Amino acid sequence: MRPVTPRSVAVIGTGAGGLVAARELRREGHKVVVFEREDKVGGTWVYNPVIESDPLGIDPSRKVVHSSLYASLRTNLPREVMGFREYPFVATNKTQRDPRRFPGHREVFEYLNDYVSEFGLNELVRFGTEVSYVGLVEEGKWKVRLRIGEDRVDEIYDAVVVCNGHYTEPRIAEIPGIDVWPGKQIHSHNYRVPEPFRDQVVILIGSSASAADISRDIAAVAKEVHIASRSVKKDGTLGKLPGYENMWLHSMIENVHEDGTVVFKDGGAVCADVILHCTGYKYYFPFLDTSGIVAVDDNRVGPLYKHIFPPFLAPGLSFVGLPLKVVPFLLFECQSKWIAGVLSGRLVLPSPEEMLADVEAFYLTLEASGVPKRYTHNLADYRFKYVDWLAAECGCPPVEEWRKEMFLEASKNKLVRPETYRDEWDDHHLVSQAHEDFGKYLS
Ligand code: FAD
């Protein structure tokens, strides 16, 4: 076995990614400090009723609210699938907890806090500490500049693991005529409760999991909800949605006008009060200075070997949690194990040139299949294969068969029962298998 070298490692963020990175790095023997600008762990899962001064979330001078959670949010994965492999997300009999299979957001926040207590992670975290600069200094070390209230402090680390999340910087749809359109605009990042939309005519752009939830939330109080979606088919699915008196599905918006009219590409037109952009987010690393070695280009963060290591800055700089359309906590856990092992020298990376060649080959495959750059980190077609690859690198078993099957079953169930998939299901046998497996990790 290769000698294990402990490193000093700065982790940015205490979302699920930063927490599991902290645990895995310390387990490997590294000296870990986790920086968190807020006063709680949980990242996305810290619900904040406050919305930003700019509801579109694009004014650079706004005070940023990190989380994009809305009050009614329940998980879109069953808890058995969603939890870390080595710390299953099981219902507990503690008071005021939510035992449902698809629990409300507060339950995930509590689970992450349980994780912190279980592994004593709090002692590694410096709260109220924002990382404002990360850059390479001599001998491959990293300078990390911290903003603590009015104070600025520079510290030096062997490595930095970036876990700052990517659901905070809104991406906005470009709409011809929007400058003269008189209505309000908001991004789902700043959506919390439906009440402000009472009796309004709302245009909601998007078709993600949040778009589906939010449209139903709003339909309960709004006068009309019109969903503009890029992914609608030309086969007659457009029009009034079954089961609703006040919700319609349209193609994308063609343009908007001074008199409040919104015209859709399918020819329909509606006079609307609000446009709600459920159009996703941008990767954003305002603190990172790599002299251009790592850049964000059309939402591709690169070049990164396996979505984690920049070939020519590895292993000192790494990213946890960039992939999309994945099972996040499990993926973060495996990425973190790999980073921890590589940093200690127990696991070995290919040469920088080989890593870069791998990334370039990956980009060429995307191009050849017509996948736009902005979907570089979308792992929908190989989400488990990716985690299995990482697991194999780390000498861990592949993703459990029950988890893969349960994910598929839940996805199918969501299509069959879009309104009730969180409360009705048929995969009871898989739940039993999961719980049998959890026995290994639960004392
Ligand atoms: P985050 O949770 O965003 O944490 C990042 C942390 O970094 C934050 O605490 C932030 O304060 C801190 N930070 C950022 N910048 C700095 C800085 N410069 N200095 C110091 N600290 C900093 N996943 C699921 O598995 N199931 C679901 O049902 C699900 N639903 C979701 C619903 C919504 C609306 C959204 C937005 C996401 C959902 N996700 C879901 C995905 C979810 O984001 C991930 O599961 C996961 O919580 C992301 O963790 P993270 O650590 O990558 O980032």
UniProtKB/TrEMBL annotation:
<keyword id="KW-0285">Flavoprotein</keyword>
<dbReference type="InterPro" id="IPR000960">
    <property type="entry name" value="Flavin_mOase"/>
</dbReference>
<keyword id="KW-0560">Oxidoreductase</keyword>
<dbReference type="InterPro" id="IPR036188">
    <property type="entry name" value="FAD/NAD-bd_sf"/>
</dbReference>
<dbReference type="InterPro" id="IPR050346">
    <property type="entry name" value="FMO-like"/>
</dbReference>
<dbReference type="GO" id="GO:0004499">
    <property type="term" value="F:N,N-dimethylaniline monooxygenase activity"/>
</dbReference>
<dbReference type="GO" id="GO:0050661">
    <property type="term" value="F:NADP binding"/>
</dbReference>
<protein>
    <recommendedName>
        <fullName>Flavin-containing monooxygenase</fullName>
        <ecNumber>1.-.-.-</ecNumber>
    </recommendedName>
</protein>
<dbReference type="Pfam" id="PF00743">
    <property type="entry name" value="FMO-like"/>
</dbReference>
<comment type="similarity">
    <text>Belongs to the FMO family.</text>
</comment>
<keyword id="KW-0274">FAD</keyword>
<keyword id="KW-0503">Monooxygenase</keyword>
<dbReference type="GO" id="GO:0050660">
    <property type="term" value="F:flavin adenine dinucleotide binding"/>
</dbReference>
<keyword id="KW-0521">NADP</keyword>
<dbReference type="InterPro" id="IPR020946">
    <property type="entry name" value="Flavin_mOase-like"/>
</dbReference>
